[in-house]
Amino acid sequence: MGMWLTPDQQGRLAFDKGDYAGAAARFADPMWRGVAFYRAGRFSDAVDAFAQVRTAESYYNQANALAHLDKLDEAVASLDEALKLRPDWPEAKANLAILEKLIADKKDEEDEQEEAPNLKPDQVQFDDKGKKGKAGEVDLAQQTADMWMRNIQVTPTDLLARRFALEAAAGAKQ
């Protein structure tokens, strides 16, 4: 099969089958490779792949991957770059607002932790006989992942158009 298909075609077949790690290993196109790494949950590799391209979409996708790595300030910088290239992009503006809120919430949380009560050990009282609450979990990571996946801008049409443009530009330089 390998001798009849280009690396990007092989990557696309693996991608369509849900083998994102295998697809990332095959893709030559950095955008497709980045998307495959992103879908495989390898966000650091996705950031590196998206960094090879300088388009609004690559900066946008790079910001999404950085946000998954909890590198919120870097994600904001990537979204700023995306908005410089495409100023009226509503999804990028929405993600920027979300990131800014997450950064503000994180800062507030850190400030609250720094303001620990100044109680001496003898002043602490425990109410072991008091009301007992129920333990629960909120899967914040999954909610964040779902939000970012809904907002990632990857369509086969866009990626193929970008690939053909890159190949045409490479052919024109030769």
From TrEMBL:
Keywords, alphabetical: TPR repeat
Show the Pfam families listed in the entry.
TPR_1
Pinpoint the residue ranges of every TPR repeat in the record.
56-89
Instruction: Return the SMART domains for the record.
Output: TPR
Q: Record's superkingdom? A: Bacteria
What name appears for this protein in its UniProt entry? Answer: TPR repeat-containing protein
What's the source species for this entry? Neomesorhizobium albiziae
